[in-house]
Design goal:
89 residues; mainly alpha; flat; 51% helix; 0% strand
Length: 89
């Protein structure tokens, strides 16, 4: 039998991502990688989808989210690309 808090309502994507960053990303990834994940979650995912309940989340629910990202995704693979994206904010 498990012990601990019992969820009274389905969690939102924002609350799950906070848990994911704290419990899985921070202890297991390099600090710079964890910082980047935190930045993208905080600036882009949570404002767009954070209030969505996990049990109601679907790909069909928000068409075009990736297309509305303020940068072309491949640019984030370089340090210069990430720095340029941050300067635009």
């Amino acid at each position: 039998m498990r012990s601990g808090p019992v969820a009274t309502a389905p969690p939102t994507l924002a609350s799950y991502l906070a848990y994911w960053l704290r419990e899985l990303v921070d202890p297991n990834l390099a600090p710079a990688t964890a910082t980047n994940y935190d930045m993208f979650v905080r600036l882009y995912i949570v404002p767009e989808l954070g209030k969505k309940r996990l049990d109601k989340l679907s790909v069909q629910g928000r068409p075009g989210v990736a297309q509305r990202a303020p940068w072309p995704l491949p640019v984030l693979r370089t340090r210069q690309g990430r720095a340029a994206m941050l300067r635009r904010r």
